[in-house]
Amino acid sequence: MDKVYFLPRLLYFFLLFAMAACSQERASNVASEPQAVAVPEKAAALTADTVIMRYWRGYDFHDEVNITNPDKGEQSLVNFINLFPSSSPDVVSRSIKSMLSDAQQVPAALDFFIKQYEKYLYDPNSPVRNDVYYIPVLEFTLDSMQLDELEKVRTANRLTLLRKNLPGETAADFSYVLGNGDRGQLSKLSSPLTVLFFYEPGCSHCEEAIQQLEQQPYINKAIEDKSLAFLAVYPFGGKDIWKAYQSHIPDKWINGFDEQGKVVKKGLYDLKATPTIFLLDADKKVILKDVDVVQLLGYFGLR
């Protein structure tokens, strides 16, 4: 294999356990902070796309050590994921599918990497979860692997959910009821930006996120100036539970209840964990999908 040199570490892994989400599909054992990223020598002379597409060149999927040793296979995958933001989603998708196609020669290796992709890109407790990057994994699984009927249905359903509300697409519209009995609709909010914050009463991580966001002067001022709407929604049913929890939601926020239960029943959003946070533009197109507080604040240049 080519000689390697190292780039900076993946910073968000420091937040792995602090930002773990309240999840209906609670996952465990998310790996600890990765080491430095290894990329080919003379990478500065290569485009980001080339680096990603060549990343797995020469990797020995037949070597069992590359699976059993976390510093080998798992670390290599973490470093690979760390390179994704430097390239386009299309190139990332092609590189993932190419890598999995190579790994498919060794069933144990393919199974290992499929599970690692799920842990890092789909697990709600992973700070680098990303639906756009996980979609190619599911597409490859559905198209190239021998699945039984139940696995096909489960994979296809998950893929359908992930393809909804992607960045650049218009967020699924829904209506909600307010504490005073008035009704509102997501698409009717007129602010240049909208934070859509799905929460669940009693979720400790929701409460932490609410506290962090409420303490941000920039966020509060933007809401007051009407340059930002902050819509908090309880989507899981139980109107009495929602009413009893209203004092926990900041007064400046719009606190809505999905009285018709459409968000969950119709699968309008993939709510695998709470809080689930979106940032939308004036036309309700998705800017950020399913991000944590750190990523949301980062968009505004806040820490």
From TrEMBL:
**Domain Thioredoxin residues, every copy:** 165-303
Question: Any idea which UniProt keywords this protein has?
Answer: Signal
List the InterPro entries.
DUF5106, Thioredoxin-like_sf, Thioredoxin_domain
**KW Signal (keyword) present:** yes
Is the Ubl conjugation keyword given for this protein? Answer: no
Pfam families in the cross-refs:
DUF5106
Highest taxon, organism lineage: Bacteria
Where does the signal sequence lie?
1-20
Q: What is this protein called?
A: Thioredoxin domain-containing protein
Species name for this entry? Sphingobacterium deserti
Its ancestry begins with:
Bacteria, Pseudomonadati, Bacteroidota, Sphingobacteriia, Sphingobacteriales
